[in-house]
Each structure stands twice: as C-alpha cells, then as structure tokens.
Specification:
- The protein is mainly beta and 288 residues long.
- The protein has three helices and 25 strands.
- It has helices spanning 94-98, 110-113, 225-229; strands at 6-8, 21-24, 28-31, 44-47, 51-52, 65-68, 74-75, 88-91, 101-102, 117-118, 121-122, 125-128, 134-135, 148-151, 157-158, 171-174, 180-181, 193-196, 203-204, 217-220, 238-241, 261-262, 268-269, 276-280, 283-287.
- The strands form seven sheets. The protein has a six-stranded mixed sheet.
- The chain is elongated and about 75 Å long.
C-alpha cells in the first residue's frame, strides 16, 4: 500500500499452480513484476483495474476466458500475445471498451478470440454510443463478428488499425465530426459501403482502406459529392449522394452548434425561414 493505493506486490502468487481463477478488482492500481510467475493453470481471468500489465504470460497455454470490466483504462503492449488457448473475451459495455487504450494489437484479447462479446452477447451490428468521442487504436483489431457500424455522432477521430482485419464488416458510418482516419484504420476489411457525413473530406492515413475502392460505394451529402470526387484520399470510391434525408442519422450540429437542416430530398437548407418539413439529426421536424 502506497499513498492510499493498493497494489499486488512482486512475486505475490509465484508458483501457485493450483490457482485456476483470478479476479482483480478496480481497487488494485498496479501489479508487480512476476506477480503471477509460474501460475500455469489459470483458466479464467477477470480484470477491473485501471492499468493491466503484461503479468500473465505463464498462463498463456491455460487461459480460456478473460473478462474486461468497467474502469479499465490501459492495457500494455503484448499483454495477451500468443495466448493460444483463449476462447472467450468479453467486455462490460461498448462504452467501457471504447475507453480503453490498447498499446498494440496484442494488448487486445479480442485480436485472438475475434468475436466481440459485450455483456454475454455477440455483437454483429455495432452502434457507437454518443458518449464516445474517439475510436482508439486497435480497439476492434482482428474482430470478425461485426458486420455493420453505425452511430458515433460525437466521434472526432478513428485510430490506427481500429478496424484492421475485420473480414466480415460490410458497412460503416463515419460521423460529421470525424476529422481524421488514421493509418490502417480499415485495412484488410471487406467494406462495400461507407456513409461519410462530413461536409469536407477528411485526410486519410496510410493504407487506411485497402479494399478495391471501385467496388465500395461511398455515400456523402449531396452538396459534398464534388469535394470527395476531387480529393486524393477518396476519389477512387464509387461516390454517390445520400438522397434520402432520413438516412442522414450521422449528421449532428454545425460548427456553431446550431442544428443542420435538410429537405426531404437530402439537400442541405441554409437557415430555413419558411414553413415545412425538414430533417434534423436524422429526424423529421415540422416548422409552422
């Protein structure tokens, strides 16, 4: 115990071969070197502490299930590298998963189990909550259960290799506040459609999209078609306008915080003064 914090000391469980299940609560702030050295029979691991370090390598041949709870903030490099026995990985919520910083792909156990399991359910359609402001590096690396990504109204960036090797993903939504798509973000994915609601094209990192872009339809706001068609990072896609305003669910407010209006044909209406039916944030409103 130091300065009111609780830590697991060095060599605390060294050689405990009878240890098969471990639950580390959020009151633990650090795990000492070699704390679980020689613990070769741990099959279940539940982690709720803010920082998860590479301390479990001796159970990589026995660990079958890991549960990542609320409050985890950081998982260090290679924490789950070569955990060949791992069959199941679950997260407490989408929000808690999106809060985690993974230092590399092998820090994320999902890169091994491949199926995104949230609170006991496999996720095939991922709705990014409005509370999420960034999709971090490696967060869904090597996942093959997610086929569609929606939401993310307040996301401003998509991190390095965030969706890399997602072989089953077909459709993704990029919100209007996204300013950057990082290196390898969607590398080796099988996207067939992208809904990008940003009025101005974002700069895209190295190998962010490696599919045949001519076979992937990029839907953008009608007034933004020309901008995307002339942009070095987007011109190769099959660019089409979003014609149905009811599909503009990824659009939030303008840069001033004021609502953005669209007519029923999906065309942006600047400062509408007239009466009528408009679309704001993907919902119909009536101005009387």
């Amino acid at each position: 115990m130091e300065n009111g914090t609780l830590g697991i000391t060095e060599y605390a469980f060294e050689g405990c071969t009878g240890l098969t299940s471990v639950n580390i609560p959020n009151s633990v702030t650090s795990i000492g070197d070699n704390a679980f050295e020689g613990c070769k029979n741990i099959a279940y691991l539940e982690l709720n502490c803010p920082k998860i370090q590479n301390r479990f390598s001796d159970c990589k041949a026995s660990l079958k299930e890991v549960k990542i709870g609320m409050g985890v903030e950081l998982i260090e490099t290679n924490t789950f590298k070569d955990f060949t026995a791992l069959q199941r990985c679950s997260f407490a919520s989408i929000e808690s998963l999106m809060d985690i910083t993974f230092e590399n792909a092998s820090a994320n156990p999902l890169s091994i189990t491949k199926a995104l399991n949230v609170n006991g359910k496999i996720v095939t359609e991922l709705a990014i909550p409005n509370s999420v402001t960034a999709i971090k590096n490696f967060v869904l690396y090597n996942c093959n259960s997610v086929r569609k990504v929606t939401g993310g109204r307040n996301v401003t960036s998509i991190g390095e290799s965030a969706f890399c090797n997602n072989t089953k993903i077909r459709s993704v939504q990029i919100g209007d506040k996204v300013e950057a798509v990082s290196d390898y973000a969607f590398s080796d994915c099988s996207l067939t459609e992208i809904y990008n609601y940003a009025r101005q094209p974002q700069n895209v990192g190295q190998n962010a999209f490696t599919m045949d872009k001519t076979k992937c339809t990029l839907y953008v706001l009608p007034e933004s078609v020309d901008a995307y068609a002339s942009h070095q990072d987007w011109y190769e896609f099959d660019i089409q306008p979003i014609n149905n305003a009811l599909d503009i669910e990824g659009v939030g407010s303008g840069t001033t915080g004021e609502p953005v209006y669209y007519d029923l044909q999906g065309r942006r209406v600047e400062q509408p003064g007239r009466k009528g039916i408009f679309i704001v944030n993907g919902k119909k409103i009536i101005k009387k």
